[in-house]
Design goal:
By secondary structure, this protein is mainly α. Helix content is 40%, strand content 8%. The strands form 7 sheets. A 3-stranded antiparallel beta sheet has the order 3-6-7. Strands 1-2 form a two-stranded antiparallel ribbon. A two-stranded antiparallel ribbon has the order 4-5. Strand 10 (402-404) and strand 11 form a beta hairpin. The longest helix is centred in the middle third of the chain and has 25 residues, at 327-351.
Length: 583
């Protein structure tokens, strides 16, 4: 049984066994005295509730079946048999900071309070970022650093909340994640316009903020769909992260009732409708503007960035596990399966780079016509950057940043490659090659603080052209080669799935040596990530949550099931680029 903790304001992070027992008895007694006879048993059960272990081995869900099986026959979905006792409280349960709740005490990490003070500090800091709406926790703000009130770090960002949500799920605290999913789903239904132009119905907000008006005793929500963002770009990744987190919630709780709600089913389908709509594209990848994801400033990632394509692939696979098999659901499943086939082939064929492929591109012919062309995107070999020849090890490979007509962005992007592993967009061989690359280029990609958001930095004339002389994205800073601790959780999950947890442990030890002392910065600057970022916010929530998720995942690898999808073993083998291929 988990010890009952004091509220965050009085919690000091270290408890003896005797004190825990005393506080537990006191809390139970108080609950019995303060509640009426009808509610006594319910309150006691809530107080004494223990976290159930996550069951990793379950019958295969609909989405874990082969794409080919789905293509052959779309049979009704067989949902898991969930125990009634695994269901979480309904949304109408009101949380009060003065009442006992799982939010006050990290359950799975309680044994590390004394042995690892940084864990206790991280949990305490994470809980201070909680945002409440009408008495219920609905998210976490981006940062507790209020040094500049003009920025939007006091808002709840969809992508920023994902590591926080995973940390709470791993700790058996489901209510906040459920509330967040429902609240953002409600915001999706709002009419969205930017300069008199109406956005797609399925667009999820980038962020939202709770406005308290105590004089009128009301609370209101303000959502940002890109109309106030830098560059006025709608967040393409928010919808994908929402689907991924919904699947993680369902996997963690064993409760499919939330995903099966008509509102959630409609929300998933609205997101999918935006992404699966037919247009002028000849590629299965999604065409995106600069600034539509974690890299939310001009950084030359417009076109078909790896981050969006990997998240797109993972969201499609997660949607297969969540969609109900009614007539409309079956239609979406058919479209998803077809898109996954095309997308996986395209990404594995044209985005993948290793030593052999680099040599092939180096020897490309140009101006090829017809369907037998090898250089299908008419990439000029002279456009290959000098650094990539030294960067590519003999063993190793990665998905490059972007592929579009006459353009290949050879930069390494951490998020896209880690998500490619977790979603099984990367084959087992490709996943192992990515791990080989990280080990071989440790100083470049990890350095003294994990992890580089991209590598290498752009500078000089290229920086002026690509970023528009952005003073925040100077070389080896922020999105331009900065080191972001939040990426630690994705690396850890990818390492565990690839059978290389030692890589994650090494990175985690580096992070632990500095994060707490530096007050959890948003990012680090410098070629090695040695310096706290020049404009980095302190007490950045996803830096805190990313560390906790990585820590818990290494200690209990069964948590990986929340964010990992197994390879489809019956998927068609990757085809060669062309029947006329010669080396």
């Amino acid at each position: 049984m988990s010890p009952v903790a004091d509220p965050p304001s009085t919690q000091n992070g270290s408890y003896s066994a005797a004190a825990s027992v005393i506080k537990c008895v006191e809390a139970v007694t108080a609950a019995m005295e303060s509640s009426n006879a009808d509610d006594d048993s319910d309150d006691i059960l809530k107080l004494l509730d223990t976290t159930r272990p996550i069951k990793v081995e379950r019958p295969r869900s609909f989405g874990e079946r082969s794409f080919n099986e789905l293509s052959a026959a779309l049979s009704p979905r067989h949902y898991r048999n969930y125990e009634n006792s695994s269901r979480v409280d309904h949304l109408d349960h009101v949380y009060s900071p003065g009442r006992w709740s799982g939010f006050n005490s990290p359950r799975s990490m309680s044994t590390h309070f004394e042995s690892n003070p940084i864990v206790a500090e991280a949990w305490e800091s994470l809980r201070r970022t909680l945002v409440y709406y009408r008495g219920e926790p609905v998210g976490t703000i981006a940062a507790l650093d209020h040094s500049n009130e003009q920025v939007n770090y006091d808002q709840v960002f969809v992508r920023d909340f994902v590591p926080s949500g995973l940390a709470f799920l791993m700790n058996g605290e489901y209510e906040i994640v459920k509330n967040f999913l429902l609240k953002t789903l409600h915001l999706q239904s709002w009419e969205k316009t930017v300069d008199h132009f109406k956005l797609g119905e399925g667009v999820m907000p980038a962020s939202f903020k709770v406005i308290h008006k105590p004089e009128r005793n009301i609370e209101t929500l303000i959502a940002d769909f890109g109309e106030t963002a830098i560059g006025r770009v709608a967040p393409v990744d928010s919808g994908f992260w929402w689907i991924i987190l919904l699947r993680a919630y369902t996997k963690s709780t064993g409760d499919s009732s939330l995903a099966e709600m008509p509102a959630c089913q409609r929300g998933i389908k609205l997101i999918l409708s935006l992404c699966l709509s037919e247009g002028f594209d000849t590629f299965p990848t999604l065409l995106c503007a600069d600034g539509c994801s974690m890299i939310d400033r001009r950084m030359g990632v417009y076109g078909y960035p790896i981050e969006i394509q990997a998240l797109f692939f993972m969201a499609l696979r997660c949607a297969l596990t969540l969609l109900k098999q009614d007539s409309e659901g079956k239609e979406f499943v058919e479209r998803i399966v077809k898109r996954l086939h095309a997308l996986s082939y395209h990404m594995r064929s044209y985005f993948w780079l290793d030593l052999k492929q680099l040599n092939d591109i180096y020897r490309y012919k140009t101006e090829e016509y017809s369907h037998t062309a090898v250089n299908k995107f008419n990439v000029m070999p002279d456009s290959l950057p000098d650094w990539v020849f030294d960067f590519m090890p003999c063993r190793g490979g990665y998905f490059i940043g972007n592929v579009s007509p006459a353009k290949m962005d050879f930069r390494w992007f951490c998020l896209g490659n880690c998500i490619a592993i977790l979603s099984s967009l990367a084959t087992p061989e490709q996943a192992a090659a990515i791990m080989d690359l990280i080990e071989a280029r440790w100083d470049e990609l990890v350095g003294e603080m994990p992890l580089k958001i991209c590598y290498p930095a752009i500078e000089g004339h290229e920086w002026r052209i690509v970023t528009g002389c952005d003073p925040k994205n100077t070389r080896w800073s922020y999105h331009n080669g900065g080191s972001w601790p939040v990426l630690l959780w994705m690396l850890t999950a990818a390492c565990i799935k690839s059978g290389r947890p030692q890589i994650a442990r090494r990175a985690l030890e580096l992070a632990e040596s500095r994060l707490g002392k530096d007050h959890w910065p948003e990012y680090y600057d410098g070629r090695l990530g040695r310096y706290v970022g020049k404009q980095a916010r302190k007490n950045q929530t996803w830096s805190i949550a990313g560390y906790l998720v990585a820590k818990m995942m290494l200690e209990d690898p069964s948590h990986l099931g929340m964010v990992s999808l197994e390879e489809d073993k019956l998927m068609k083998p990757m085809m060669k680029r062309s029947t006329s291929w010669t080396c």
